Amino acid sequence: MVQKFQSPVRVYKYPFELVMKAYERRFPTCPQMPIVLDCEIISDEGAEDGSQRNTKRRCTLAVDAPYIFKKLIGVEVVYFLQNNFLDWANRTLNIEAVNESFSSRIEIFERCRYYAHPDNPDWTCFDQTATLDIKNFFGFEHSMEKMGMKQYTQTTLKGKEIIEYFINELKAEGITEVDRWKPPADAAASSISRQSSKDMEQENGIADVNGVKRGSKPEILLDGDFIAKHLGQLTPMQESKLLELRKMLEDCEEDLSKLPSYQTILRFLRARDWHVSQALPVLKDSLKWRKENSIDDLLDDYKTPAVVTEHFPGGWHHYDKDGRPIYILRLGHMDVKGLLKSIGTEGLLKLSLHICEEGVQKIKQSSESLGAPVLDWCLLVDLDGLSMRHLWRPGVKALLSIIECVESNYPETMGRVLVVQAPRVFPIAWTIVSAFINDNTRSKFIFYGVADANTMKEGLEQYIDSELIPDFFWGGDMQGGLIPKTLYKMNSLEEDEQAEQAQQNKGSNEHGRATNNGLNSDHHGLYKTVELKTGYIHEVVIRNADVKSVLTWDFDVIRGDLHFTLYRVTKDLPQQQDAAVSFFDLNDFSEGVNYFKEETTLICHHKESVQGSHVMNYKNNYVLHWFSPSCGAEGATQLNYFYEILSSANYKGSMTSLQSGFSSNSATSSCQSR
């Protein structure tokens, strides 16, 4: 197993010569690195004119490992060979170190470099790379790998501290500057390679504001100041992974200006838990997607449709207390069907991508304004008005498609999601949607139910200044609302749905019976259609074996009225023989004894749509019951219905973080929505 490490460029705001004098003081030992027991000089050679010096050392290091481990390998110390090549003329120090102990079982190679800053000759840069190749180490390869990572992290953190310590020591002794090397006045032209300032710039690289260097194929100059200002707190290992992924991208791209920013690379790494091998292909796919879809031009080219301007209930709204831009989406007041019928699935996706691009732009602006790292934005979702109507199948399908696209191409751009005024129906919607959201993103959701407005206000004020919390949470003006059908342009959604429904009905043999084993969500296709004459009933039986699973339904009534009731039955049900006779009309059925009305009867009129849900708390039969009291002149009443069963495992998971937001009876109550 081979581990590679690379640190960002560290900048000392002191001249190279002063840093070198401080560096020499760390030998043979220094108090900041107690693991180094001794450094013996093996050879020390220099050029006649004093311009170069080559020093070799043999360093003794204590084994920083548990006692039992040291006993097993039989050593208390290990030895490293270090070769330092100091070039005063070009103001560089190159250091290479390899392990001498156990070299046949493990190879450790480290390369460090000090050099004059390419932009400021009075500053000094330092960078460091290392590889750890464990071939065979007494069966402790994994332990050695962890110790190697730990040691690299410690030495990286200590390195700058040591130099600063000895520079302060020099200052205390009155040494604040050291003369630069100059060739002797009478010396012949030296054979030492002299680099022009242009050559030095190309070798060492110069970083612009994004940390991207100018030059044809330079190394990466990513210093600590840039990280602190633009990327935030990173561990040495995380910095190493960031540089590794950036270098891989650099090797694939000739034009450095097309490389993504360090902030973007960082987001993809975090989304893949810092696994470079996993982040690289995903990031490359995203860059290809951006190019193929001209995403970089979206902010300039996108023209907001009038229906979005007038009816879409979302927009940017100031910043939270951490400097994140806030986007407010009043999802409960969004006409999903109207939007899709007006701008189509592609239009809704393009609107979502435009919002994401705006978010990335506002993140940059906030970071520059604050002079501190801001890497993501805040989403405030208002669910007031949310009902089962929002779970319209084509709408859910479009939403899941958008989530998938955003998760793939804008990972870790969402820093916090505040969900407010979550109604009773929300756990059902959350169960469906959350399965498509990345685990890390899902952990950023914070929910507030409708039970206690004061709790919601106090909760929001933890993240947003009170004067910036929108008034509509406390009864102000509404936005969004139904989109007039005169603005509808898209018929394809309805046609596709009707075609799919016709195909489903063609192969259907509906007998009004269904069984739930509680293992998975039970999907029964799209809507099914039945016609009910006067006095006829239609009943669907759900044989529930999964306590706490959730039954949801959605139906439309056409040409007449229907009475809808949900029953629970504790005895076995016979085969239904007569469409005009209900189970509950049979002699051996008695309400309150062996069957119970779980939901109050709802009278549904012509052209009404009804959605609802119910938590099935018993291993009994549940019956969806429709009764036609009378029919109009147009003929039998038509019922178009769909039902679905959500497993208790998913439902409980969605409720865990919501319990404080709902009243005690909300989890077991139906939500009838028209």
Automatic annotation (TrEMBL):
<feature type="region of interest" description="Disordered">
    <location>
        <begin position="495"/>
        <end position="521"/>
    </location>
</feature>
<dbReference type="Pfam" id="PF00650">
    <property type="entry name" value="CRAL_TRIO"/>
</dbReference>
<dbReference type="Pfam" id="PF04707">
    <property type="entry name" value="PRELI"/>
</dbReference>
<dbReference type="GO" id="GO:0005737">
    <property type="term" value="C:cytoplasm"/>
</dbReference>
<dbReference type="InterPro" id="IPR001251">
    <property type="entry name" value="CRAL-TRIO_dom"/>
</dbReference>
<dbReference type="InterPro" id="IPR006797">
    <property type="entry name" value="PRELI/MSF1_dom"/>
</dbReference>
<protein>
    <recommendedName>
        <fullName>Protein real-time</fullName>
    </recommendedName>
</protein>
<dbReference type="InterPro" id="IPR051064">
    <property type="entry name" value="SEC14/CRAL-TRIO_domain"/>
</dbReference>
<dbReference type="Pfam" id="PF03765">
    <property type="entry name" value="CRAL_TRIO_N"/>
</dbReference>
<feature type="domain" description="CRAL-TRIO">
    <location>
        <begin position="304"/>
        <end position="481"/>
    </location>
</feature>
<feature type="domain" description="PRELI/MSF1">
    <location>
        <begin position="3"/>
        <end position="175"/>
    </location>
</feature>
<dbReference type="InterPro" id="IPR011074">
    <property type="entry name" value="CRAL/TRIO_N_dom"/>
</dbReference>
<dbReference type="InterPro" id="IPR036598">
    <property type="entry name" value="GOLD_dom_sf"/>
</dbReference>
<dbReference type="InterPro" id="IPR036273">
    <property type="entry name" value="CRAL/TRIO_N_dom_sf"/>
</dbReference>
<dbReference type="InterPro" id="IPR036865">
    <property type="entry name" value="CRAL-TRIO_dom_sf"/>
</dbReference>
